[in-house]
Amino acid sequence: MNKLIVGNLKMNLETVSQRDEYCLRTYEVFKKLSKENKNKIVFCPPIAHLDHFVHVVGKLPVEFGAQDCFWELHGSYTGNNSPKTISSLGGKYVILGHSEKREYNLENDENVMRKVLMALRTDLIPIVCVGYVENGGDEMENIKNQINLIADNLTAEEFSKIVFAYEPVWAIGSGKTPTIGEIHTVVLFIRNIVAKTYNQEVSSQIRILYGGSVSPDNVSDICHNTYVQGVLIGGASLNPEVFARLVQMLN
C-alpha cells in the first residue's frame, strides 16, 4: 500500500504574504518530486487558505484537506466550518479529534463521532486522531472507547473509509517519539479492535498513520518497521524543503 503523508499546517501562515511564499516555495520544491513520488501527499492548511492552496499547489499531483469541520452542514453555528464548504473548496480530507482541539476547544469523543458521521455523509475522508490522554488516563482504553463509539454508529463499509492517526499527546511537538515497538503495539491494538467489531477484512482495509514529532530522520524507520501506512506531520510540514525531504525518504 502506498503511504499517505499528511501535512497539518495548524494555525500558521497567518498572513497572505506568508501563505503566498509558502505556496510558491512548495510548488517549486514538490514539482521536482512529482515524477518519482509513489505516495499520496495531502496538505491541510488553515481553511481560509484552502482555496488558494488548491489553485496554486493543486497544479501538482497532491490532495488537500481541512483541520476540522462541524457536525452540521449549515445553520446558526458561528465560527464553525461546514464539511460541505471544505468539499466545495477542493478538500478531500478532514482531520478530526486532534489533541489540540481536545485541549483548547474541549473536544470530546461524542463531538468527534458526530463530525465523522457528517464528514462521511459529504464524501470527505476523516483522519481521526487517537491517543489523547488527560488526567492520568489509560491510553489504550481511551483509544478503544473512541473507536468503539464511532463503530457503533457506522456500517462496515462506512467505517473502512476512515483513516486513523495514532498521536501520543506527549510526542506532539516535543521532538520525542515512542519506540518502534510501542507504535507497532498500538497499530496492532487498533486493528484487533476493528477485527472484533467488524471482521478481519475491514481491519486490514483501514489505513493507520503515526503522528508526533515526525521528521526526515525518523520517518523511514517509523513507516517501514511499525506497519503504519503513512504519517501525519506538523512542524516538519511548515518548511517546504523539509517536507519534501521527508516525502523523498518514503519513495
Task: Please provide a written account of the structure.
The structure is a single chain. By secondary structure, the protein is of the alpha/beta class. The protein has one domain (4-249): Alpha-Beta Barrel (TIM Barrel), CATH 3.20.20.70. Helix content is 43%, strand content 15%. It has eleven helices and eight strands. Strands 1-2-3-4-5-6-7-8 form an eight-stranded parallel β-barrel, surrounded by five helices. Strand 3 (63-66), helix 3 (83-88) and strand 4 (93-96) form a beta-alpha-beta unit. Helix 5 (109-121) packs across helix 6 (139-151).
Q: What would you give as the CATH superfamily?
A: Aldolase class I
Strand content: 5-15%
Which architecture name does CATH use?
Answer: Alpha-Beta Barrel
Mean pLDDT: 94
Q: In the CATH scheme, what's the topology name?
A: TIM Barrel
Supply the helix-strand structural class.
alpha/beta
Tell me, briefly, the overall form. Answer: globular
Annotation, overall tally of beta strands: 8
For the largest beta-sheet, the strand count, sense and barrel status come to:
8 strands, parallel, barrel
Spans with pLDDT under 50 lasting ≥5 residues? none
Present the secondary structure layout.
Blueprint: E1 4-8, H1 16-31, E2 40-44, H2 50-56, E3 63-66, H3 83-88, E4 93-96, H4 99-105, H5 109-121, E5 125-130, H6 139-151, H7 156-159, E6 163-166, H8 180-197, H9 200-205, E7 207-211, H10 219-225, E8 230-233, H11 240-249
Parallel strand pairs: 1-2, 1-8, 2-3, 3-4, 4-5, 5-6, 6-7, 7-8
